[in-house]
């Protein structure tokens, strides 16, 4: 499957799984579009912020489905997704009430997502593609998620 990227996803963040890379690209595209919309005027398109949130939720569900289909224990990574959605929902409520600046919300989303791909998703995809896991593999290492490979 060939993916046509518009260039929003930095090449260094490609994980070499087309479905996931395409979704990562779409999330970066949505963040950039919202930044442009918000910087060009004072209007904050809340419906598009909601759509970004829903896309994050759909993307996380895709990762969880892929892990489940492979038989990979994914509970700790899923917890990261759940915690993130809770945080984003709370922050989005603050954007709606004007208690949080839309620009800082978008900058945070972008920073968090880059870090998540680099630290969590790359490792997940690497272990998934190597097949070096068993059904009891999990994410643990000094408070940071990690996949345990078979010995």
What does this structure look like?
The protein is an all-alpha fold. The chain is built from four helices and no strands. Helix 1 runs antiparallel to helix 2 and helix 1 runs antiparallel to helix 4. The chain starts with 17 loop residues before the first helix and ends in a 21-residue tail after the last helix.
What keyword list fits this structure?
single chain, 151 residues, mainly alpha, 4 helices, 66% helix, disordered N terminus, disordered C terminus
Offer a quick outline of the entry.
The protein contains 4 helices and no strands. By secondary structure, it is an all-alpha fold. It is elongated and about 50 Å long.
Strand and helix layout:
Elements (H helix, E strand, L loop, with lengths): L17 H23 L5 H25 L4 H22 L5 H29 L21
Helix pairs in contact: 1-2, 1-4, 2-3, 3-4
Which segments are poorly predicted (pLDDT under 50) over 5 or more consecutive residues? 1-5, 136-151
Structural class: mainly alpha
Please give the share of residues in helix.
55-70%
Distance between the first and last residues' Cα: 32 Å
Shape: elongated
Question: Nearest-angstrom radius of gyration?
Answer: 16 Å
Number of helices: 4
Report the average pLDDT across residues.
Answer: 83
In total, the number of strands is: 0
Largest sheet: none
Content of β-strand: under 5%
Q: Encode the helix/strand succession as letters.
A: HHHH
